[in-house]
Amino acid sequence: DFIIHLPEGKNLVIDCKVSLTAYERYFNEEDENKKAKHLLTHLDSLRKHVKGLAAKNYQQLYQINSPDYVLLFVPIEPAFITAVQNDLGLFQFGLDNNIVLVSPSTLLATMRTVSFIWKQDDQRKNVDKIARESGKLYDKLVAFIEDLKELGQRMDQAQRAYTAAMNKLNNSSRFGDTVVGRAQRIKDLGAKTTKNMPPELLKTADEEEIN
């Protein structure tokens, strides 16, 4: 009647077709002898139903994996209690056939267990995802550090190139031997210009001349 899906493709099947006609007669009977006979019929009916469920090929009937257990649902709680109290081997008989007898109260507990199993499975999957994402983050961090190191090396190279260029431009034992010095000399000789050399370059040059 119901298929309960579990993690890893497993299934539980709930069967609700148990007949409680004998229990109804047992419950309504006042004659003790007849009452005892109806009770035996009720117990026998449950055992026959267990055998019938065990013989079903659910994987072909419902296109599912072979269920780990089939839950035989007894919808009337007193009918379930009466059966297990008067047939002490009934529950084990069901387990031996991969059938679990459940009542409204025990079915609810079973469904809560199924819910807990799914939560545990989700947590396990999240742990796996966190591990994968952490690995990816670590790899990205290593790559970022390598890029920073390469950037630092290129900045050092640029600084060295800048220093070399400035040396050629303005740093020399004699101001007149520098590019700036020669250009300024041309201006001083009367070259027509519209702009002036940055003062800090000339100041540096003057200091070097004094030294």
Summarize the structure.
The chain has 211 residues and is α/β, with parallel strands linked by helices. It is built from eight helices and four strands; from the N terminus they run ββαααβααβααα.
Plain-language structure description:
This protein has eight helices and four strands; from the N terminus they run ββαααβααβααα. A four-stranded mixed sheet has the order 1-2-3-4, sandwiched between helices. It has helices spanning 21-28, 32-55, 58-61, 77-86, 90-96, 104-170, 179-188, 199-210; strands at 2-6, 10-15, 69-73, 99-102. The protein has 211 residues and is α/β, with parallel strands linked by helices. The mean pLDDT is 81. The termini are far apart. Helix content is 67%, strand content 9%. β1 (2-6) and β2 form a beta hairpin. It is rod-shaped and about 140 Å long.
Key phrases:
single chain, 67% helix, rod-shaped, 8 helices, four-stranded mixed β-sheet, 9% strand, 4 strands, 211 residues, alpha/beta
By secondary-structure content and strand pairing, the structural class works out as alpha/beta
Largest sheet: 4 strands, mixed
Overall pLDDT metric: 81
Percent of residues in beta strands? 5-15%
| CA(first)-CA(last) distance | 104 Å
Helices and strands, with pairings:
Layout lengths: L1 E5 L3 E6 L5 H8 L3 H24 L2 H4 L7 E5 L3 H10 L3 H7 L2 E4 L1 H67 L8 H10 L10 H12 L1
Parallel strand pairs: 2-3, 3-4
Antiparallel strand pairs: 1-2
Helix pairs in contact: 1-2
